[in-house]
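ingest -> validate -> predict -> emit
validate: passed (alphabet ok, no gaps, 430 aa)
predict: started
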Amino acid sequence: MRNSTAANFEKFSQKQLTVLNWWSRTSPYREKDAIICDGAVRSGKTVCTSLSFIIWSFYDFNDTSFALCGKTIASLKRNLIVPMKPLLTSLGFECKEKMSKNLMEISYRNRTNRFYLFGGKDEGSASLIQGMTLGGILLDEVALMPRSFVEQAIARCSLENSRLWFNCNPEHPMHWFYREWIKKAQEKNCLYLHFTMKDNPGLSAGIRKRYESLYSGAFYQRFVEGKWVAAYGTVYPMFSHDIHVKEPPEGEAEEYYISCDYGTVNPCSAGLWGRFGGKWYRIDEYYYDSRREGEQKTDFEHYLAIDKLARQREIEAIIVDPSAASFIQCIRREGKFKVIPAKNDVVDGIRLVSDALKKREFFISPRCHDILREFSLYRWDEKSLRDAPLKENDHAMDDMRYFIATALNRPESDFFALSVDRKEKQNWDF
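emit:
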């Protein structure tokens, strides 16, 4: 195969070209067993690793099975499969999807290889990939996958000349993948490449500036600067009383939700949210601290308080911590409100809240005293070996996070850098 893997691509950075060619016979990295690409968001690492992985598979193999892995199959299809298919087609590859089997069959000339799709979202995912024999594997967003899944997937690559491909955005510096793979890349015979947004020539200065404005604190250092840093200080440093605290507009909202962090010994917090002209407002809240009041309330008493908070409005749903099973059943028994178990990934939810604050997508009424108090007190646990906020002053913070993660449905932009000359298909010499 020629070393000109990107010959007809008009815009690739030098680092992307290294990813595209590292496995070729004339590359100085040919003897490496794996490649790791980490760094900033939208730095162009995903599209070049996925494209290079597919082309490489036809360099050394035919009629062989490979695996493409993401946190979920849905995210894998969105982030990798959708942008990759037209690129492969433009280069002369044929792609056949068998979605019922989570399988893609890709052909070039007289060769065909099989690419199985896997989601590595939790510890149970490891069993899905057991028993396979693979020529190679690409793990997209590997830092979001449990170690058991990644290690089981790696163990499947037992064919001669098999290789491993990883890409991810940074997480906590005590993350197992950072300690076991990035810090030991040389020991494990891996090519390690660190990406910044400047390594993506398809990303304009204006778009880079937009992403720089979206994040602050540890999230800025990770997603913009591409650093593996610990979260510290206040969780929401971008929150501003002058910007984010305002009265909702007069009249009725276009729709309403209630979010609830249920507690008996711990405080019970609920917020009433209304949408006015595309912006959300926390209109009012219910907050009961049994320790402060000296008396615990029953599930039904909390339900009555939330019913009062609704004030006869038509509520789309009450979003509740999924662990509050008895309270969810209490609401359902009354038959008045629909209940939605909240999405409860803490760090991912905090990131979504941070993004929404930066974009000014929601505001807090000045009458919501308890959530405003918690904003100033909610802090990262600096002693934790992973990203985790302190479990104190977090009840209104949690009910807000449930609302943002579950009900505030914000589509995700998919920027990636490629420029393909479609006038002439690329020919590869096998």
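The longest strand covers residues 279-288.
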